[in-house]
Recover the amino acids of this structure.
């Protein structure tokens, strides 16, 4: 095909489809103001009650001349964050989204049809376009007198995220578990902070997250040329005082993480803090395996006691390979040869699967003799500490997957670390909107335990027709929506909370 033919603009206005009996099936683009995001009205109620974007706007300095400002900072932040929650991860999406009167209403834009815009070419576009939003994000990197006039203050945003997260923790909590984890955020360009990571086998960032249950407290973008635990101690020194400020000094705080966080500096600092503890994974090594070896004989005996007795009698060095799966646990006292400052309690899991050994270890400063520990079955003995408490950290991994996959936290494609960090925070605040909707409005419904992506697909993506008059904005939602009752339930909850 000739290049000129390939780029010919299509002027077709009516589209014919296969008929239905005697009826023709036609489609056109004369539906008026329609939106595929009718459920976004619920997010507006969440943001209104939490004042999330209003508080976030206070973390910026706006140097623009108010006489020429058409897009107020809180509205721009709502536009970007709500769009992420609705599944629009790219700034380029906003060149079409800026036309949506429903999104404009959700963002708090009074002129939902864009009729009051100053420039003729902007009429009918109530929201900001991609260039305006891009300058907002790049303002985190530099401020200049012509284009980048909105400055983000990272410390304030970091503190706001922590404040909102701590406020979301249930008030009567006696034991607060902090799940720290790192993940890979692949880099596909020449961004600042580009390093190759051997474990992930690619160029990437290495963001650090902290969750309390499903509540994000920390989201820090880091380069990947570092230990996976870097920044954890500094984060704890901010997170723990914030928790103490709300819950008091007697609340128990437990840091939970995989073996990447088993570091002397972190453990010794926690051991010096009152009512702060840790349960961390511990990487295997020959010394630990030798200490756990007797437990594998006990595990094998659970499956075939006679074969184990025969092997012992014959002087075998390893238990026999027996069919089935069994596990047992051993309490160990262990200290590394060089890095640890003291001996610590280690719990070893000796698991056999069809004769194959699968050793695992955790280290903790909990002794199981603390009075408060005895009230929590999952902390009382070594086996439950591993199976019920430590393994539950998989929930935090699922929350990070939500953040990365559902909230597009990996769209860190600007040239600078600072603006990519801002994108990571925008993603985290979008997650907080969805999480707050789930926690306050969807309990008792089929979406009470749903992921952010499922909530978006089932509850946000409701077809809507928008009619605007002098007296009201009327949103007609799809009559055939299967989420009609859930929507009504959520609306009642949110309106009663905000009343």
């Amino acid at each position: 095909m000739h290049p000129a033919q390939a780029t010919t603009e299509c002027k077709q206005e009516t589209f014919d489809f296969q008929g239905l009996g005697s009826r023709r099936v036609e489609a056109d683009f004369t539906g008026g103001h329609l939106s595929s995001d009718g459920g976004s009205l619920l997010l507006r109620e969440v943001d209104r009650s939490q004042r999330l974007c209003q508080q976030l706007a206070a973390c910026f300095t706006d140097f623009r001349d108010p006489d020429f400002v058409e897009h107020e900072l809180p509205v721009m932040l709502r536009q970007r964050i709500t769009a992420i929650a609705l599944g629009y991860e790219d700034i380029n999406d906003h060149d079409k989204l800026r036309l949506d009167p429903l999104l404009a209403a959700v963002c708090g834009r009074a002129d939902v049809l864009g009729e009051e815009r100053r420039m003729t070419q902007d009429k009918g576009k109530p929201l900001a376009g991609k260039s305006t939003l891009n300058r907002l994000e790049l303002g985190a990197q530099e401020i200049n007198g012509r284009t980048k006039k909105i400055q983000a203050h990272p410390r304030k945003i970091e503190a706001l995220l922590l404040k909102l997260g701590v406020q979301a923790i249930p008030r009567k909590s006696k034991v607060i578990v902090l799940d720290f984890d790192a993940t890979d955020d692949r880099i596909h360009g020449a961004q600042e902070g580009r390093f190759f990571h051997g474990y992930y086998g690619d160029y990437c960032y290495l963001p650090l997250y902290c969750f309390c249950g499903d509540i994000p407290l920390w989201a820090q973008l880091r380069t990947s040329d570092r230990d996976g635990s870097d920044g954890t101690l500094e984060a704890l020194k901010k997170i723990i005082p914030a928790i103490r400020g709300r819950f008091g000094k007697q609340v128990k705080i437990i840091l939970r993480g995989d073996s990447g966080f088993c570091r002397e500096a972190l453990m010794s600092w926690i051991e010096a803090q009152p009512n702060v503890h840790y349960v961390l994974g511990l990487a295997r090594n020959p010394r630990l395996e030798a200490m756990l070896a007797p437990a594998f004989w006990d595990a094998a005996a659970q499956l075939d006691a006679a074969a184990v007795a025969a092997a012992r009698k014959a002087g075998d060095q390893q238990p026999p390979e027996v069919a089935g799966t069994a596990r047992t646990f051993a309490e160990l006292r262990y200290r590394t040869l060089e890095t640890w400052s003291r001996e610590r309690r280690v719990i070893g899991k000796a698991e056999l699967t069809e004769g194959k050994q699968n050793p695992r270890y955790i280290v903790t400063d909990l002794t199981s003799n603390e009075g408060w520990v005895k009230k929590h079955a999952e902390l009382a003995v070594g086996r439950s500490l591993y199976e019920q408490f430590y393994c539950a950290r998989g929930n935090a991994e699922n929350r990070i997957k939500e953040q990365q996959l559902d909230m597009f936290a990996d769209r860190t494609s600007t040239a600078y670390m600072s603006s990519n960090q801002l994108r990571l925070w925008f993603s985290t605040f979008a997650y907080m909107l969805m999480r707050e909707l789930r926690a306050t409005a969807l309990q008792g419904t089929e979406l009470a335990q749903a992921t952010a992506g499922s909530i978006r697909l089932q509850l946000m993506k409701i077809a809507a027709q928008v009619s605007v008059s002098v007296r009201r904005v009327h949103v007609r939602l799809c009559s055939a929506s299967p989420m009609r009752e859930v929507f009504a339930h959520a609306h009642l909850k949110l309106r009663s909370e905000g009343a």
Notes: The radius of gyration is 28 Å. Residues 214 and 399 are 6 Å apart (CA to CA).
